[in-house]
Amino acid sequence: MKNQILASLILSIGITAPVAVAKNKVVKIGERPESVTKGFGGKYYVTVMNSPDEEGDAVIKMLDEGKVSVFAKGLNEPKGIAFTGDYLVTADQTRVMKIDSKGNVSILAEKKSFKREVSFLNDVAVSHDRKSVFVTDMGAISKMFDPDKERSLWPLESKQAKELPAIGCVYQITLDGKITDAVSSGQKDVPGPNGVGRSGKEGLLLGDFFTGNIVRKTAKGKLRVIAKGLRGADAVEPDGKGGIYVSSWTQGKVWKLTENGKKKELILDGLKSAADLFVDRKAKKLIVPDMLAGTLIFVDIK
After folding, report:
1. CA 237 to CA 235: how far, in whole Å?
2. Taking a C-beta distance cutoff of 8 angstroms, is the pair 144, 154 a contact?
3. CA–CA gap between residue 289 and residue 48 (Å, rounded)
4. Looking at the domain assignment, is residue 141 inside a domain?
5. Is position 68 within any domain?
6. Gap between the Cα atoms of 170 and 173, Å rounded
7. Span between the terminal Cα atoms of the chain, in Å
8. Is the pLDDT at 273 greater than 90, yes or no?
9. Judging by beta carbons within 10 Å of its beta carbon (0-12, 13-18, 19+), is residue 269 exposed, middle or buried?
10. Is 41 part of any domain?
């Protein structure tokens, strides 16, 4: 039943009309693209999940000056992807994989290596020293949605919301496979973390999918909510200038937060499902996968 619910959520189609998308460059990339990063040779690498019913058919695609090709094969449901300098690292639902410059795929951390039951591994961010990655586990995702409505999270004041177990967490995994907690489970402000981004040298940014809380973890380990109400939060990425880009998978929107989360500006609207975006500071581009549309949207940024 759990798999049926997840498949229904993934395959459902949003009804929001593409309003602001048309003015931006759009590239057709494949079936169910989830995350994008810049990697080997300065090219873009995209996790493309393909069919939700078939294991092993997912791929990493490479986008090079408009040309799309398959770079790596044999994945199940790859979500977030990040580049360490030596490897691409992706969360493949219940395991974490690394891919070398030749497209060879190997397991960095398998399900049995984690100290608690793995639920739904999702986003990936590289540590400041590039010797490890941070990986979110969204926790009880199958209990977040009203099954009688289309891609609709339970209201925050509902009985179901109050009973949602806060089992989501964030792992830190070294490139030789050692796993520790970066944010442990049981955090009421972050019951289902989806997005993770680096904040300075030692801190983290977290986007909670269910509550819509955007949370900063300080270098001393304290968690502080800096923005609320961005439900369906997927990516949470700093722009390097004090701003933070946040996407919502359920709302099909992208915002930019400034003034430490106090100010919110709508950047992109009308997507079917805004997934795990990438901030290309050098090219001054925001690259946003629209998972259900099968596209990448390129947005000019300052």
Report:
1. 6
2. yes
3. 10
4. yes
5. yes
6. 10
7. 45
8. yes
9. middle
10. yes
Q: Using alpha carbons, select from 98, 168, 184, 162 the residue that is nearest to residue 133.
A: 98
> Which residues, 6 or more positions from 67, have their beta carbon under 8 angstroms from its beta carbon?
none
Distance CA 88, CA 226 (A): 30
pLDDT score at 150? 83
CA distance linking residue 180 with residue 231, whole number of Å? 28
Q: Provide the pLDDT confidence category of residue 22 given band limits of 50, 70 and 90.
A: low
Q: Which domain holds residue 63?
A: 2-16+25-187+269-300
Residue 194 is assigned to a structural domain of this protein:
no
Least confident interval from 9-13, 20-24, 226-230: 9-13
How many Å is the Cα radius of gyration of the chain?
A: 17
- B/e letters for 179-191, b = 16+ CB within 10 Å, e = fewer, are beebbebebebbb
- Is residue 24 exposed (0-12), middle (13-18) or buried (19+ Cβ within 10 Å)? middle
CATH of the domain at 69: 2.40.10.500
Closest CA to 286 of 36, 85, 69, 74: 36
Q: Is 90 within 8 Å of 138 (Cβ atoms)?
A: no
Please give the DSSP secondary-structure letter assigned to residue 113.
G
Q: Measure the CA–CA gap between 190 and 195, rounded to whole angstroms.
A: 11
DSSP 246: E
Is pTM, for the whole model, over 0.85? Answer: yes
Give the mean model confidence (pLDDT) for residues 41-61: 94
Cβ atoms 112, 155 nearer than 8 A: no
116 contacts: CB under 8 Å, gap ≥ 6: 167, 169, 185
Based on the structure, what is the number of domains in the chain? Answer: 1
pLDDT at 215 over 90: yes
